[in-house]
Amino acid sequence: MKRFITVFLALFVVLTFSTTGLSQQPVEQKPAEAPKDAQAVEKLEIKVDKTQLSGGGKITVTGKAPAGKDVYIEVWAEKKIRAARLDADPDPKTGKRPYIFYMTDDMPAYYRLIVPEKYKSVLEAAKKEGKKWSVSKVIKDAGADAVYGYPAKILIDRYQTTLWASIIGSRGTKLEPMDEKENKRRSMQLLKARFRSVDAIFSSNLKINDDGTFTAVVDLPDNAAPGKYFVVAKVDKEIKSDPVVIENSVSFPNVYLPNAGRTVNVLWPFLLTAAITTFGVVMGAGGGFILNPILVMLGLPHTVVAGSVMPTVLFSQASGIYNYSKIKFINWKLGVTLGLAMLAGGFIGPKLTELITLEQYKFLFGWVLLILAALMLWQTTPKYLEKNKKEQAILKEFKKRAEEAAKKKQEGGK
Amino acid sequence: MKIEFWGQEFKANLWIGIPGAFLIAIASSMFGFGGGPFMVPLMTVAMRLPMYVVVGSSLLAIFFNTLMGTFRHYGFGNFDPIFFLIMFPAAILGGFIGPRIAKKISPIAVKRVAVVGLAILALQLLGVF
Predict the structure, then answer these.
(1) Distance from CA of A383 to the nearest CA of B (A)
(2) B18 close to A (CB below 8 A)
(3) CA geometry: angle A285, A339, B47, nearest 5 deg
(4) Do residues A400 and B52 touch, judged by C-beta distance below 8 A?
(5) What's the 3-state SS for chain B?
(6) What is the ipTM of this complex?
(7) Chain A nearest C-alpha distance from B113 (Å)
(8) Residues of A with CB below 8 A from B73's CB?
(9) I want to staple B80 with a disulfide (CB 3.0 to 4.6 A). Which of A83, A85, A259, B106 is the partner?
């Protein structure tokens, strides 16, 4: 036991240092406000019907633009979240895969580009493309290239990653910052990587009348982040409105999950986790196998799911080890040897979570679950059960003896 | 490697054990589930160790993985503190209720239900339906 504690103390120290080293990312702040164009030819005036929301809701935006021009409305949250994407698509010319990892911590937790009603068909077409839809194509087809503004300017870091870098757990070599055009292009890919669906980024709820007056509805979902939201109407780069600020408040039992970037009612994840871990314990396989896919399907980012579910079992595992060690039911040599192999695996795994897309996560997890199901099916076959019966009897006998020995020792000690 | 357990000696085949544990740890920390259901068959079937040696020692091995995985996820910013604070007490509660229910029902029936449930979930993840 003493040896065990020493090993873990040493490990703890090493890990603490290694992680603080990793989490030191360059902090460069960009102004959150949309840059105000000094040479604005004409200012658009917009009005909102309310500036305070509680737990999301609908806001009607009205205004007037020069007659006959298309107006677009951009809405974004002040709260920021992370978005990341590994570019491994082969280059159309050379066929080489670039393996460049793009990451930003400045993605707004909510972003919506509202396009005029007449482009509804563009959004419908993108939805029909399924998972392969492209943000840049929608923006181009809806004539919104000049007005797509806020996310285009967020700070995106990029890393040249390699297999070796992934193994030693690094993101790779940080590359030079991108130019404006490239940053804009990559920001569109990151938008999709984070928000996934057409409806989570675009809306066509914007009516423009012949005289140039327009009415749009911003529908803030109940899981939206609390804090400030900015609304800007644009005709093109020059003609636009000043940002109008709306405040969304969230009150208990709803809480905002800062890394997941959404608001949830605490009751749901609590009940879900309790029910699934109970079932997990009963079936003898832990809750993560069922909990994680469900959380991912509910729309939480897979990185946050993996990173937040894993620590929940730390304490139950530690107490299990303590209980087994009391009755001398742990072979330290075997446990530590295999443990060191698992330590190396545990070092690499979380890096891979970050690199893979949601689709890959689902695909691989699906296969893991199929293997687990096969294993469990095998454990219900008569042959296994018979063997298991004997083993369980021996296990019981050993536990009994061990407990008695521990008791005796305790009494002897007194 | 030779190991001793309650006066008995066993041979542990590390040529299978170490790569197996390594791969299980990668998958486990990557997806954020516990490695138990895979480590126990690895140690009992592939390494031919008896169950009573495996129960405690596999837990110890997995703990290394969980600890490392937790730190790494934290370092990469995948850890959401509030989400964790909601799930943690629920997981403890589940760990408290679970064994009480388990005593009352047939483990084989539970496993069969779990097999069906896991298969459905798997097919859903794979996009079959």
Answers:
(1) 13
(2) yes
(3) 70
(4) no
(5) CEEEECCEEEECCHHHHHHHHHHHHHHHHHHCCCCHHHHHHHHHHHCCCCHHHHHHHHHHHHHHHHHHHHHHHHHCCCCCHHHHHHHHHHHHHHHHHHHHHHHHCCHHHHHHHHHHHHHHHHHHHCCCC
(6) 0.92
(7) 9
(8) 303, 306-308, 310-311, 350, 353
(9) A259
Q: Residue A55 burial (CB < 10 Å; 0-12/13-18/19+)?
A: middle
Residue A71 structure tokens: 């107006």
CA nearest to A361, candidates A296, A406, A410, A310: A296
A99 touches chain B (CB under 8 A): no
Nearest to A84 by CA among B33, B75, B77, B74: B77
Task: List the structure tokens of A21.
Answer: 């080293």
Q: B13-45: per-residue pLDDT in tens? A: 999 999 999 999 999 999 999 888 899 999 988
What's the Cα-to-Cα distance from A190 to each of A103, A139, A183, A360, A405, rounded to whole Å? 8, 14, 10, 16, 60
Place of tokens 């970050």: A354
pTM (two decimals): 0.82
Sign of the torsion angle spanned by Cα atoms A4, A6, A7, A11: positive
